[in-house]
């Protein structure tokens, strides 16, 4: 794997270049979107939340009790908890123009659909390669992720890997992932001839990528470094449907919006009902 530090990093000051690179590769990195002070606020709030009540937002059922991730579960939809500091931060940043303007440049006007926070402490497993729109099921277009680095994220601590160009493939039904490497069960293999590249991100950098782009991460092999990240998913405003878990959607002014619920079997057949991401 190579780093994308020089390949896909562009400035937010050139929306046309951003859109061109996104259309070509399905992924683009914009550095220093958030300030060090903002990153400190995010990190402190989420660490205080996981120390005081990790079940308020955590997906505890995903791993065994002796797994390090049971102590540091990924937090799901914190923006829906405005009563908590992590909820206020997530709700505010989901509609922050510095992020939303880039999303708009890439896919047009969009609604916020999901917020997540990953702690990924030392020794934690990674997440097998997958496609986000397998879960969101936005239609007729797809979702887009804004993946915010809260720590230095690289190969050693399980920084994100992504396959440029894979956004052109259809969303597919996953295979079974290696449980020794991934805490999630699904695996999507990159298209033949395409290679995953390893991101290298500083706190405050943001990676934007297409909902069909294949991406994932390896385990955190360090002994003393977390790989924390705050992630938002958006869907274009002209989307006709999205999976029920992601509604209500959030407009740029913070108001809540609902569209039709995605129906049908999804990529795994008629009986498939989707899953939380």
UniProtKB/TrEMBL annotation:
Native organism: Microlunatus elymi
GO molecular-function term, one example from the UniProt record: 2-oxoglutarate-dependent dioxygenase activity
Keywords, alphabetical: Dioxygenase, Oxidoreductase
PANTHER family: ECTOINE DIOXYGENASE, PHYTANOYL-COA DIOXYGENASE DOMAIN CONTAINING 1
Comp. bias (Gly residues): 263-277
Region described as Disordered: spans on this chain: 258-277
InterPro entries per UniProt: Phytyl_CoA_dOase-like
Domain of life: Bacteria
UniProt name for this protein: Phytanoyl-CoA dioxygenase family protein
């Amino acid at each position: 794997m190579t780093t994308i530090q020089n390949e896909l990093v562009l400035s937010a000051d050139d929306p046309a270049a951003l859109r061109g690179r996104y259309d070509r590769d399905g992924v683009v990195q914009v550095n220093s979107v958030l300030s060090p002070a903002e990153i400190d606020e995010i990190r402190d709030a989420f660490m205080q939340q996981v120390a005081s009540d990790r079940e308020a937002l955590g997906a505890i059922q995903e791993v065994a009790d002796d797994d390090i991730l049971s102590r540091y579960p990924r937090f799901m939809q914190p923006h829906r908890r405005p009563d908590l500091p992590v909820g206020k931060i997530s709700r505010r940043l989901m509609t922050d123009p510095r992020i939303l303007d880039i999303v708009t440049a890439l896919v047009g006007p969009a609604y916020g659909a999901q917020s997540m926070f990953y702690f990924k402490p030392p020794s934690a497993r990674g997440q097998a390669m997958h496609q986000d729109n397998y879960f969101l099921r936005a239609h007729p277009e797809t979702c887009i992720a804004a993946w915010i680095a809260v720590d230095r994220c690289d190969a050693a601590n399980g920084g994100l890997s992504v396959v440029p160009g894979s956004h052109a493939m259809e969303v597919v039904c996953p295979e079974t992932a290696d449980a020794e490497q991934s805490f999630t069960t699904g695996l999507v293999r990159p298209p033949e001839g395409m290679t995953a590249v390893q991101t290298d991100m500083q706190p405050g950098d943001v990676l934007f990528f297409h909902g069909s782009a294949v991406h994932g991460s390896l385990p955190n092999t360090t002994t003393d470094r977390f790989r924390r990240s705050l992630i938002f998913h958006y869907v274009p405003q002209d989307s006709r449907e999205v999976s029920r878990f992601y509604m209500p959607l959030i407009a740029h002014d913070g108001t809540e919006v609902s569209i039709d619920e995605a129906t049908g079997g999804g990529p795994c057949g008629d009986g498939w009902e989707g899953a939380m991401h």
